[in-house]
Amino acid sequence: MDGKITMKIHSLAAIVATILVIAAAPLWAAAPASTSAPTMQQVLDASKPSDWRPLNPADTLYMDLPEGRVVIELASAYAPLHAQNIRTLAHEHYWDGLAILRVQDGFVTQWGDPAAEAKHPVHPPRSLGKAKSTIAAEFEREVSPALPFTRLPDGDVYAPEVGFSNGFPVARDPQTGKTWLVHCYGMVGAGRDNTPDSGPGTELYAVIGQAPRQLDRNIALIGRVVQGMQYLSDLPRGTGPMGFYKDPAKQTKILRVRLASDLPPSERMHLEVLRTDTPTFAALVESRRNRSDAWYLYKVGKIDVCNVPLPVRKTP
Amino acid sequence: MDGKITMKIHSLAAIVATILVIAAAPLWAAAPASTSAPTMQQVLDASKPSDWRPLNPADTLYMDLPEGRVVIELASAYAPLHAQNIRTLAHEHYWDGLAILRVQDGFVTQWGDPAAEAKHPVHPPRSLGKAKSTIAAEFEREVSPALPFTRLPDGDVYAPEVGFSNGFPVARDPQTGKTWLVHCYGMVGAGRDNTPDSGPGTELYAVIGQAPRQLDRNIALIGRVVQGMQYLSDLPRGTGPMGFYKDPAKQTKILRVRLASDLPPSERMHLEVLRTDTPTFAALVESRRNRSDAWYLYKVGKIDVCNVPLPVRKTP
After folding, report:
1. Which of B34, B270, B297, B298 could form a disulfide with B290 if both were Cys (CB 3.0 to 4.6 A apart)?
2. pLDDT at residue B56 greater than cutoff 70
3. Is B315 helix (H, G, I), strand (E, B) or coil?
4. The complex's ipTM?
């Protein structure tokens, strides 16, 4: 669609057409081929130390499964009440000895207290201690300067705007002034029942399939798996309804969950994630919109918010 | 955006604005809540026998792994040369005793001949028999009446139009007159090297993570897993580059792959898939755009092509 066409018309028609060109262009225009762009690896190799951000120990969970460790970064800025309750639960060792309850193929892996889900539990549900059993919904927030936003250029099926905020995939609606975390692969949320305040963070889930974006704004996302995703995605699928394990013996035990800041410094992992508000991140996005690897014959020139890699590395 | 606005203007401006309203509206407009819509289960319960299509035995592969059977429907209309070569390979029992070579988390599971990928293979690569070792690229096709198209209403980040064609997710570009299969979860493609004709269907992959749409038009998709996807998605991730298994002992053996039409009728499965060109399918799509389940507090009113379920059932 040639923008010049709209210049010949005027008044309301011109305004409407111009707005719509802006709105529609990313979805329609063929992308110009970008042949000299660096690859993602080249972008990362050229990154500066300041392009990286260490994980905050007070926002970092280690979940140890028999196969290995899952590292989760809490999204405190988007779900502060949930993050605080999860810190309390981890501090009390709430999840130690609990289990993976549900693995629904192409959807989610979910963990928590088997007794809270069982119809006829052998033991009573585990005490929440000082943690709260209900928390007000944290499904979206007001747009604010405290929530930075790096917008992606290619639009989105589900939301007016998408991009990244402190390393988390997010969406925004300028009309309502709201912003929210989005359900990409590896995002972690707090399972709930039918009432909005029924997910206190005791039972958590991670996305293991195609981004289930219909969950956005329906449930509180509380963070993201930054390392060890494979230990949640390669588990045997549950054969009961919604992927729950019919046979409790198939549930994978959780060895322990710890907040990094509850551990002595010598036991903490030193990980850092690529910042999403830098020219280096913009270059990384571009390297994925137009792959310059020799294998790619057709460069699509687009990227979906859930296809942008979010690199993590050991602190050099 | 109110369609009536465009009715007051005329000629080119009206045409441009109308086209753009159609193009842009699904990405921007808040969707009206649809509270009385049936659930997907209600849609399926009310379906007629004619809403379903039996799998064609000549287009159906059974891949038997130690954990269970994967059923793949070949997309003969989109990749006829590849489908024919794959039929030949199955007829010759090419894959029997070969292996899952690669499981890259959030991306693909890939299978084929370990000797074809190994640097120092113990055995020479398996003979392809009467099958071809190279096939011309089948990355896209001309739009034609032989390729039906049920368009989805909500747009797409990567393509001008998306929808379904005989049960497969597809995209179209009206400007180029081309259509192609898209890389949704469960889609199966023919791995290739850097030249476009280097993927004869001997080494196949299935998508196990977020739709890697950057692969669209870069490689031949040849079909879709219609049953048993969990046996490809729950495998241990490879720890080598690109998810290849460093240790060949970790590779999962393929017991056998058969084309259903090569088996006696008594050994064939009787499966049928929901047709994608019926009012019932349109109702199913609507049931997923606006979930009427009590759990959903916010109805997004949108759906991505890779989030539309494609039901399969035993023939009643």
Report:
1. B34
2. yes
3. coil
4. 0.89
